[in-house]
Design goal:
It is built from 16 helices and 39 strands. It is of the alpha+beta class. The protein has 5 domains: about 100 residues, Rossmann fold; about 60 residues, Dna Ligase, domain 1, CATH 3.30.1490.20; about 240 residues, ATP-grasp fold, B domain (D-amino Acid Aminotransferase, Chain A, domain 1), CATH 3.30.470.20; about 120 residues, Glycoprotein, Type 4 Pilin (2-Layer Sandwich); about 70 residues, OB fold (Dihydrolipoamide Acetyltransferase, E2P) (Beta Barrel), CATH 2.40.50. It has an 8-stranded antiparallel β-sheet. Strands 24-25-26-27-28-29-30-31 form an 8-stranded antiparallel β-barrel. Helix 4 packs antiparallel against helix 5 and helix 5 crosses helix 6. The longest helix has 21 residues. The radius of gyration is 27 Å and the shape is globular. It starts with a strand and ends with a strand.
């Protein structure tokens, strides 16, 4: 089954990731894309690309047609979309193409969380109490966790604390699962509040060989989606690893598993007990940390297995060296319940001097919309020990120059630097328990420093671009006029920085500090302020100024001299906390509502978000309809 060309039925960073290994193996790659991705890096990285019409990445027939049209011999599904769709895998094989992944039968059995649980029970692997019948939910006991039977990534997941929440939670989970996986089946299991998510990477060939590549810990999550993953786990001992690994391999061998996959367990931090959760019959987002500590390229192994080659290593050959940690950088607002953000990336530059692996599907100029998951990149560090791996990852995030949309970067940095993380105290309640700062907070001195740097950069650029009297010193006047000044806005606060060029070439600032410019160009400035010198990358986009400081990026707005008053939001107005599509309205005009009542459900990035009443009141105006597309801050209704 030798092949020299593949089509990647996916997008973004995973398409880029598969293309990278394909190139290293001398395999031609074909990408598919939709209008929203026409300028995405993966489209240009591939040797050839085909545009998909209606149906996009979930249209199996169109994807197979694109493969046949471009003479691709195999299809790699990536993760998400159709990667765990047995029907798609069957169609691929029926069309004469090679499927890079486990057999359709295995996908049906192990990819279906309900069937996988039944199989785990038969294999004597411990499982949590569960049911697919809502009427049996009370027998399990609250709190409960609703999960999609056909997928993962947090889609179709809901925590239910009380019986009165069950019905609406099931409806919402089913709708989200159908939208994300084209399958609305759900099941209900006991929710364990304090635990760890430990997953075992398995890999098997068509010759009956199955091995595990150790564990990954993925306990730090928000909205049931992982944001920090690592290998090895700070809690798993060699004994526990062997037990979990043996259970995962036993399960995989029982149904003759081929390709890469992941067996997930819920781990009790106190007792060391673990329970089987699910099987992901695909590559995982967090697979790089396993690659870093084992030295095994998982995509390469997938392609070799699809060609019919046996594994070139046995379980005793697998060694784990050092520590690797991955952070997922998302376009989202941690201060707004981590809801997705949209916009254009005005900067996306990593610092090449900081050793880290960046798996990304975006660049400067990428438009982050509402069509897909808002992940911008995975940043992966490796070091001989966990403490250094955490420090390197935090430094890589701090050193990057990224802006244009809000991200969770500063939150990730604060997670990685927390004493609880360094100590390995990373159970699933980490975010609620530790509550790391969700944004970069500047004290007055820091705010004056960054605005002074921004002012000096603007002054230098204005001088370089001056067309009239550019031979005169900056700010020269033959009258006694006030010093030049720039006014900035940062998170609702105004900062005015006045400056005056002195005879020795230095600047006197209204902050009372002196400054010097060593060099400045369109990309940044090397300057001294209050005896502290550093090079700051600077990116300007209209009235936005993104300034990179030693601790990270700061977005400033340059205030115009004459401000046109904006429209005021009506009193009692309920506004959209993010851009999205209105998929359900729970109230009508004239209805009384109570604090906490769900009023509107928005969909963005294939996830549902409930907009709730912040106080008791009556709906006096309803300004939206189902299927409306609304922008962030749009007025939805008036509740008086």
């Amino acid at each position: 089954m030798i092949f020299n060309s593949i089509l990647i039925a996916n997008r973004g960073e995973i398409a880029c990731r598969v293309i990278k290994t394909a190139k290293e193996m001398g395999i031609r790659s074909v990408a598919v894309y939709v209008d929203a991705d026409k300028d995405a890096p993966f489209v240009k990285d591939a040797d050839e690309s085909v545009k998909l019409k209606d149906g996009g990445y979930l249209d199996a027939d169109q994807i197979i047609e694109a493969a046949l049209k471009t003479d691709a011999q195999a299809i790699h599904p990536g993760y998400g979309f159709l990667s765990e769709n047995a029907s798609f895998a069957r169609k691929v094989k029926k069309s004469g193409l090679i499927w890079v992944g486990p057999s359709p039968h295995v996908i049906s059995v192990m990819g279906d969380k309900l069937k996988a649980k039944e199989l785990a029970i038969k294999a004597d692997v411990p499982t949590l109490p569960m049911t697919s019948n809502p009427k049996q939910a009370s027998k399990i006991g609250y709190p409960l966790l609703i999960k999609a039977a056909a997928g993962g990534g947090g889609k179709g997941m809901r925590i239910v604390n009380k019986s009165k929440e069950l019905k609406d939670s099931i409806i919402s989970a089913q709708r989200e699962a159908l939208n994300g996986f084209n399958d609305d089946r759900i099941f209900i299991e006991r929710y364990v509040e304090k635990s760890r998510h430990i997953e075992i990477q398995i890999i098997g060939d068509s010759h009956g060989n199955v091995v595990h590549l150790g564990e990954r810990e993925c306990s730090i999550q928000r909205r049931h989606q992982k944001i920090i993953e690592e290998s090895p786990s700070p809690r798993v001992t060699d004994e526990i690893r062997n037990k979990m690994g043996d259970a995962a391999v036993k399960l995989a061998k029982q149904i003759k598993y081929e390709s890469a996959g992941t067996v997930e367990f819920l781990f009790d931090d106190k007792t060391g007990e673990f329970w089987f959760l699910e099987v992901n019959t695909r590559l995982q987002v967090e697979h790089p940390v396993t690659e870093e500590v084992t030295g095994i390229d998982l995509v390469s192994e997938q392609l070799k297995i699809a060609r019919g080659e046996p594994l070139q290593f046995k379980q005793t050959d697998i060694n784990w060296k050092g520590s690797s940690i991955e952070a997922r950088l998302y376009a989202e607002d941690p201060n707004n319940d981590f809801l997705p953000e949209i916009g254009t990336l005005i900067a996306f530059d990593k610092d090449e001097s900081v050793e880290a692996r960046w798996d990304s599907g975006v660049t400067k100029g990428t438009i982050v919309g509402t069509d897909f998951d808002p992940m911008l990149a995975k940043i992966i560090s490796y070091a001989p020990n966990r403490t250094d791996a955490a420090g390197k990852l935090a430094k890589a995030l701090e050193s990057a120059h990224i802006g244009g949309v809000k991200t969770n970067r500063d939150f990730l940095i604060n997670c990685l630097k927390s004493s609880e993380f360094i100590d390995g105290n990373t159970t699933t309640d980490f975010i609620d328990r530790v509550n790391p700062a969700r944004k970069l907070t500047l004290d007055q001195d820091s705010l004056e420093h960054v605005t002074a740097v921004a002012t000096l950069w603007l002054q230098a650029r204005n001088r370089d671009n001056a067309n009239v009297a550019n031979f005169m010193p900056s700010g020269w006047t033959n009258g006694r006029l006030p010093s030049q000044a720039v006014v900035f806005e940062h998170e609702g606060s105004e900062i005015k920085i006045g400056y005056k060029l002195m005879r020795d070439g230095s600047f006197k600032l209204s902050t009372g500090k002196n400054a010097n410019i060593y060099s400045a160009d369109n990309h940044g400035i090397d300057c001294v302020y209050d005896d502290k010198r550093h090079y700051a990358k600077v990116t300007k986009d209209a009235d936005k100024l993104l300034v990179h400081m030693p601790y990270g990026d700061v977005m400033l707005n340059i205030k115009p001299k004459f401000v046109i008053p904006g429209l005021e939001v009506a009193k009692g107005g309920l506004t959209a906390p993010m851009p999205g599509k209105v998929i359900d309205i729970k109230v009508k005009k004239g209805k009384k509502v109570k604090t906490g009542d769900t009023l509107v459900i928005l969909e963005a990035m294939k996830m549902e978000h409930s907009i709730k009443a912040s106080e008791d009141g009556t709906v006096t105006q309803l300004l939206i309809s189902v299927n409306d597309q609304v922008e962030n801050g749009a007025l939805l209704m008036i509740v008086e």
